[in-house]
Structure formats: C-alpha cells, structure tokens
Amino acid sequence: MSNRVIMAAGNWKMNKTPKEAAEFINGLKGLVAGAKAEVVVGVPSVCIPGVVEAAKGSNIKVAAQNVHWEASGAYTGEVSCGMLKDLGVDYVIIGHSERREYFAETNEMINKKARSILDAGMLPIVCCGETLTQREQGVTAEHIRYQIKVALLGLTAGEVSKLVIAYEPIWAIGTGKTATNEQAEEVCAIIRQLLVELYGKDVSGKTRILYGGSVNAGNAKALFAMPNIDGGLVGGASLKLDAFEKIVKHDA
Q: Is residue 121 part of a domain?
C-alpha cells in the first residue's frame, strides 16, 4: 500500500452560475467533512471567489480549470496565475483533452503553464489521454509518455512529487464508456514507470496519478483500489451532491 492520499477532484467544466456554485459547496461541506480523501472542486473562473468563500474552514480545496502562462499582458479574456493565487486557488487543471481539442492547446503550452503555476505557489493537475484511434492502433503508451515528458520538461524532482497527473482516455470522457479497472491501471502504471525513468523511484512513489473518464458513484471504489490509481478527476458526477459524496467516501 502506498501512503499517497486519494484525491477526489471534480471538474465542473462550463456548469453552474456563481450563485449555484456557492450553494453547492455549502451543501457539500457537511457531507464530506472528515473524509479521508482530499476533496477538490474545479470550478469556472467566475465561480472561484464565491466557492473559495463558501469553502472556508472546510476540507474542500479549489481548482481552476485553466490559466495563462504569462504573468500579465495583452491577452484578452485570459486569467493569470497571480490572479488565481490571489483568490485562494490551490490547484489548476491543465491540458484537459477539451482544451487540447477545442482550443488547440499544445504540450509545450501545457509545460509553460505548469511552470507558471508552480512558480505562483499552486499545484498543477496535468491531464493526458489517448483517442480511440490511438488505442486501437496500439500507440497509447508512446502517446501518453510523450504528453507527460513534454508537460514536465524542466520541472524539478521536488515539484513533480507534489503535482498531480490525471489520465483520461478521451474515448471515455462523457461517453458513459469507462476504461476497465485493468485498462485504467495499465496506463497509470505506464505513467508511474515513466516517472521512475525521469525522476527516480522516490518521486514516482509520491506523485499522485488520477483516473478520469466517466467515474461515478458505482465504479469509484474499485478504480481507486488499483495500485497505481490515486483517485479520480470526476466530470458529470461531481455536479451532483449525492454522487460526489459517494465518490469522496468510496472507502467509508
């Protein structure tokens, strides 16, 4: 058994108004108080101030869903790490497949974001994942290794041991298809082996690797029990109080 703390991280995507978000956190606080898992909610940027306020004094940590790598400048519509840090954000999700697909984000951009997030005193949740075609062509391992290698370029061993990696097979996001426990574990083990190659066994043993892709109240316990899976990046189920509570308390 590893001593890595399981993380239940919700990725709300483009859902909930600021008012709805604060109400949700007020409802969630009592339900997950004292949970063994680390509880994180990844909320839209406009919801962050109200969610941070609602989460005060609780065990709920707040993640942003994206950030720009520059400290400031002429980047209309973007948000900087300093802005997020000032609001009280703990984590930033970067490299989600939706950002890569719809907004043309590259591995190099994700690497710059990771550097800026760490410099600002927050922690990145670095996403990776393959398409159905890539899986069927047998290139999953090469594709994931490449994504992670570029994303972590230039980061120190100490930094990598604190950040979080989230493996999300693109074919399982929002499709209702979940990778089998064995499929999810296999790729998370590939990521952990890559960390051994890049940073050594000590770092690899500390870095948390999450699984994402149709995680729900019914499958979380078995997924999180796999040796190399340290929790989940949860989409739709994180928007429902009862479902997210069950995922957080998967081992209760």
A: yes
The identity of residue 73, as a single letter, is G
CA separation for the pair 166, 190 (Å, rounded): 13
DSSP code for 215: -
Instruction: Indicate which residues carry an active-site annotation.
Output: 96, 168
pLDDT tens by residue, 59-108: 999 999 999 999 999 999 999 999 999 999 999 999 999 999 999 999 99
Per DSSP, the three-state class of 202 is helix
Give the predicted TM-score (pTM) of the model.
Answer: 0.97
Nearest residue to 64 via CA among 5, 142, 124, 153? 124
Instruction: State the residue range of the domain holding 43.
Output: 7-248
Residues paired with 166 in a beta bridge:
127, 210
Rounded Cα–Cα distance for residues 229 and 227 (Å): 6
Give the angle 43-21-209 at the CA atoms, nearest 5°: 35
User: For the segment 8-42, what is each residue's pLDDT rounded down to a tens digit?
Assistant: 999 999 999 999 999 999 999 999 999 999 999 99
Residue 2 included in any domain: no
Residue with the two structure tokens 């973007």? 78
Instruction: Give the CATH number, domain containing residue 20.
Output: 3.20.20.70
Helices 241-248 and 18-32 pack at an angle, to 10 degrees, of: 40
